[in-house]
Fold this protein.
Amino acid sequence: MTKLHIAHLYPQELGINGDVGNVLALRFRAEAYGVKVQISEVHRGQLLPENIDLVHVGSGPTDMLELVLPDVRRLADELRSLRDGGVPFLAISAGWFALGRSITFVNGSMAQGAAVFPTRVSMQQSRAVGEVELSTEFGIVTGFENHSSKVDDGGLPHFGSLIHGVGSDRSLRQSDRWDGVVMGASLATNVHGPLLPMNPTIADALITRAIGRTNPSWRIPGTTALEHIDEFARESREAVRERL
């Protein structure tokens, strides 16, 4: 049987914006495709499990980000090794910042991240809160942003161009704004909502990439099991677009 092993990093500290829904969406969809799914929660002080296929880390407030950073650095070499081995990462907001090179806080202090992504972030006094709409390789993506960050993309391609919202670099004029970065099989973004239930095409891409590392011939099988879910997601995206 085809298997998918998801490592969910710091679910207690970095999971306040509904981002656990991303993990649930991955499990639900993969199981609908006949895949046996294992989810391993990784808490501070614990070792990474073996044979990881996909890594998820969600978002949280600045104090929780600061709390997990020493542990993120403890695991940095292993996390970068997973990245180099083609394991997809889905990193949301604070989780993304922890996996970047550095975080500069509002008071001017700086902390190092795991450098899984070559990005750097500066925390801002003002906060971006509201629904967002992006143009991406996956089509139109909608969700919710809730962050106080300005990101240096490290030269990576962007996840999407902002149609509505603030995005990852608020210093740019609206027409040039963007959100998130893509690095190989991995994706980092400030979009909550959570991201994957509302945008299931991204979930399917991550599942395919994760399983494809060890089973390159695997493809998503035809099924009608998710038709109602996908239609609900489409209606949700349309509802956001109508409000914006």
Remarks:
- DSSP finds seven helices and twelve strands in the chain.
- Helices lie at 20-32, 62-74, 76-84, 94-98, 195-198, 200-212, 227-243.
- The first strand starts at residue 3 and ends at 9.
- The longest helix spans residues 227-243.
